[in-house]
Amino acid sequence: MRLRITLSALVALLSAALATMPAVAAHHVNITPKLTGALRSPSLSLGRTAAFAMSLQTGAIVFAHNESLPVAPASNEKVPVSWAALTRLGPRYRFHTEVYGVGTRSGHAWDGDLVLRGFGDPTLSTADLDLLAGRLHSAGIRSVTGRVLGDESFYDRQRGANGWKRSFLGGETPPLSALVVDRARGWPALSPPLLAARSLTEALTRRGITVTGKPGLGVAPAEAVSLASDVSAPLAEIVRVMNHESDNFYAEMLLKQIAAAAGKAGSSTMGGKLVVATMAEAGIPVTGVRIVDGSGLSSLDRLTAVALVGVLRAGLDDPGISKAFVDSLAVAGRSGTLSGRLFPLRGRVHGKTGTTNLACTLSGYISGSYVFAVLQNGDPVASWAARAAQDRFVTILAQAP
Description:
This protein is an alpha/beta fold and 401 residues long.
């Protein structure tokens, strides 16, 4: 309830304050020209720049420029995606992967097929499959008369997302599937689920379990029995890696997981709809917001600076996810994508960066004082100039009273 009240107050404040901007936060008005000047550059367009900043202590609007303009967010797309995932699934949520048996047990033999069914774990590795094989061996299974089948039916079969450049698939991110092992190393020669089935077959062989048939594809029937399972690290750890390192693959898988875990189609489209719906339910302004993929690679993604700040406020104010959400952000001068930036503010800024040819962005928190978002677009955007402008903006904001 406290979160709803906080966000409702935020929306009310925004509605009133944005209508009378000259009167807003009078004690901060002296830094408005400085912040505007920080964003100016011959290489950037103020018309395609959106920025918003608020005091975390008072809720006062410190700065607003095109704050409701929908712009391409680059990897700041990961901020609402990670927030929605933590909100809907919880920081302790774990992905799982199952080995099902289709057939019957006959002594030390499994008479039939094994189905390796993926449930979206982006961290699934050969080591995990070795553990699964070890559990089958410990259960006394020494041979499989059929074959190992890879089941990716928990998600759709779209390997990428709308609005991507062709080079993004296999370049910026591995192919998407509910069953991916070792980030689909070996694709596109084989599909992700077939690669996974082959990897489990090899893991079984290493454990001394013979498999008669060749790896294949399939779907576990309702009558299949679970023979072994594997779980991932908690979602809080996965989101931390995702945002610290701006991992596109984790973000794309997480977006589909939001949908699939809700019993919906495991697709980027449905995941995006649920992220926006979760934002709206929390009272965050969603006008103009469009979540097409999880990573921000899509040219069709759109966020507003006011929505991004709303998400950051929501993540900070929710005691159930606050630590996991804030800890997922890079730290200025210390970690992740901010390890080489804002050294004078080392340790004081927690943020999320983002860069594509269309957008260069930065959002986050300054100590316990301010929450901010700066999104700059271009065709292409001058990323070096944009980063310099963002760093100037944050530095001035950090010095504000």
